[in-house]
Task: structure prediction
Amino acid sequence: MIYILNLSGLRCPNVIITLRNKVRKTKKEEKILVLTNDKFSNKDIILFCRFMKHKLLSHSLKYIPYKYLIKIGKKKKY
Result:
């Protein structure tokens, strides 16, 4: 299943906070398509995926909204 998470209008750190809350409600191997217009979120989302062991399948920064397709990896206990 692919969830669409439209975060247009949100700025850092709200982009990551909202993404983390969504990840908590998903299962391993599910995917989230993140849409954002915050140009500074690119580095944050990449680091979030690396730190939380999720896989960034693709990202597009050519047009707004910027798109990130994330596959949920190992779930950490919160």
Notes: The radius of gyration is 11 Å. Helices lie at 14-24, 41-52. The beta strands are 2-6, 31-36, 55-60, 66-71.
